[in-house]
Amino acid sequence: MSTPIQNIAGKINNLRSKSLGQILIDGRALFALIAIIIIFASLSPNYLTVDNLLIMSKHVAINALLAIGMLLVILKGGIDLSVGSIVALSGIVAGYLIRGVQIPGTDLVAYPPLWAVVIIALAVGSLVGWVNGVLITRFRVAPFIATLGMLYVARGAALLIADGKTFPKLQGDPALGNTGFRFLGQDTFLGVAPGVWFMIIVALITSLLLTRTAFGRRLYAVGGNERAAGLAGVPVDKIKRWVYIFSGFCAGLTGIILASELTAATPQTGETAELNAIAAVVIGGAALSGGRGNIRGTILGAFVIGFLADGLVIIGVSEFWKMVIKGSVIILAVAIDQAQQKTVTAKKRDKTAAAAAKKASSSKGNKTKTNA
Amino acid sequence: MTSGRVVLKARGITKEYGVTRALKGVDFEVRAGKVTTLFGENGAGKSTLMKILSGVEQPTSGTLEMNGQQVSFASTTDAVAKGISIIHQELNLAPNLSVRDNIFMGREIKGRLGVNFDAENKATQQVLDRLEEPISPDTLVQDLRLGQQQIVEIARALSAESSILIMDEPTSALSNTEVEVLFKVIEELKARDVAIVYISHHLEEAIHVSDYCVVFRDGELVATAEAKEVDLPWVVSKMVGRDADFSTFLETGKLGKPVLEIDDYVVPDPTNPARNAVDRVNLTVHEGEVVCIFGLMGAGRTELLESLAGRVPALSGHVYVDGEELTQKNITERIDLGLALVPEDRQRDGLVQSMTVGQNLSLAHLGNLVRRLFIHNSSEEKEVAKKIVDVRVKTSGPGALITSLSGGNQQKVVIGKVLMTKPKAILLDEPTRGIDVGAKSEVFTLLADQAKKGMAVLFATSEIGEALHSATRIVVMRRGHFVAEFIPKKTTREQVMAAANEETKKGKGK
Q1: Which of B421, B454, B481 finishes a domain?
Q2: What is the pTM (predicted TM-score) of this model?
Q3: ipTM confidence score
Q4: Residue A224 and residue B386: Cβ atoms within 8 Å?
Q5: Residues of the domain holding B192
Q6: Which member of A75, A284, B113, B455 lies 3.0 to 4.6 Å from A301 by CB, making a disulfide possible if both were Cys?
Q7: What is the pLDDT of residue A247?
Q8: pLDDT of residue B42
Q9: CB within 8 Å of chain A, chain B residues 316-345
């Protein structure tokens, strides 16, 4: 009986490598991206320049960071509509702290150091995500409703803190020791904007989280069949809460980067950003029902949306047509994905069924031989 | 008894699902004004045949004739239009709609201004009166208890005025009085020349109501007889196959220490707060024992096992594994302490369909495969590969989609997943539901081997053959209570059946 073990151990590499269907789906998003680049490069000489690519990547990074958080939520079979508002809230919190906090009852104004500003702003984003998670797991509010409510609450909170105004000039003051905020949005490294570096770092870490850790595997299981996962001892509610916290954290990070890029925090920042993030995840081949999707696809999805939108601006297409085209691309991507998914699964099923049948008949043959 | 006119004839019906053959060339007749009852164990092919007759599934080959004309049913609506209705075993009701709306769903009575609700109400009231059920047509289905919902399902089929009516386990959730009313309605229908096809796990009840008995085994029709010439032992012997009577019994080896202890355990009934699904049961399963909980549908087996696994909290009572109390623990902690469940509904509770065979196998054991944050790939590969061989999963490899496997192999994966957590006691709810005979015996051989290695095995079934030949001890469960205990070697199937059935028998004796 040792040979079958060896045989199977040899084949087990399948467990790690991506399935054929997954490669095709990822490949399609990549193909779309290449097509977009070729089309716009031929329409405008300014499109495929290093400067423009760097600017477009900066735009993509903002959406991609949100999309990574959204991917985890969608893998779980949920949705997070509050991320756009969290972007604004965490930016406003950062701006508020940099501008100085009046200590109640005194004339003193406290200027927290920059690291504290960043940590508090990230914590605010994560906290909003945690509230989402608690509403969904403890109070059994549907994710759509809980995060829709939070969309308004967080946006309202941002407007309240800022009194509806913008916090400008967030470069800080050397005398107060809170300078350096530009580091998060403006100081390029190797010519590339900080947002893009953050995107790369978060994507790599999250990819490891999804593919290599027990948390990632369990997340896919919860998205695939929540009841079965629960019965296998997967702590379903805990995983759900962490996923919303992570999504809130990503949105908080995005808010800080955006505020730094603009050296200003506006309570209107990030409106409808949640929809762009969902679009990126979906174009990247994730299933809204949960259990299917990956980082690579999501990042590609963010690039498709970003490069398409900026390209349309460069060749001078009107804002209105831009919306129509973007929407059509999203629908088309999902329609193709559905059709492809169906054929890939069917093909794979036939193949494995045939292999199993063959194996079964051959092992039966062996059995009778040994019996005789 | 004159033999009724043959209204529906099936010839050479074969149905294949991938590599498994659920039906193997079945010839089958239904007669007007008669009840034709189908007997057979789970997976024998009854339900598949009924799905074909009611338009849910299409046969792979074979023909159907109605009143001498060849027919085919493209869909359930098509079958209803041609005069065949079915009362499904699983309730197919929209809980958010009223009784009336459910009964007329898809065939609303149209008036000048949309639906004629008055006419629908009147018709609903009539059919409910016939069933002697005091439910208002306006009641929402979700407010009814399970038995009443089953009545609504029956009412819907009745109101379609079909010439052929299929009843798949119509009494599983009904009280004794409701069952008697149903039998009265069946008599009425017979008088009106309606042909009835009846399926039930309550064998005596089914023999009592039927005119013709048809027995299925492993996808084949093995016997047909008039009901008056038939008794329980005949049906059982045909269902199980004669040679099964000579098959071996599981020997109780030397009993080890007690592993799983259940003490005065009570589980509430989620559909009916007035009663308990499991009522003060006590049981000890020792090392090396394979104990079977035998009971009919609705006896409380599933409720007990799901509660033991930690999914539903117990109302009172205690459960211990190896002397350690688990009563307050959650599912994860129970698995860690050595108690895990193989659930009844494989698709709903057992498998993650979007994942591979390997990923499903390691799911419950993942925590132990983590080294420094990450899943240790080579340990996972090794353990998964070993388990695939251990539980004899026929698959092209661990990377194959779980959905590509046959039912039996999927079940072996679910069992393998549980075994991977190295449980001290394993619970299995209907472990052979919907799998073929070969896989069945493999599953039980596997369980016997595990028991020999010192595990305590507790499984629930409604199949008498399994209870007698795969367990070292049988506990009979009826309406939430343990009512009898048998050693398979020293008992007959009639004794076990009688213990499980007693109340229904009494009801009929009146």
Answers
A1: B421
A2: 0.78
A3: 0.80
A4: no
A5: 6-245
A6: A284
A7: 98
A8: 65
A9: 331-332, 334-336, 340-341, 343
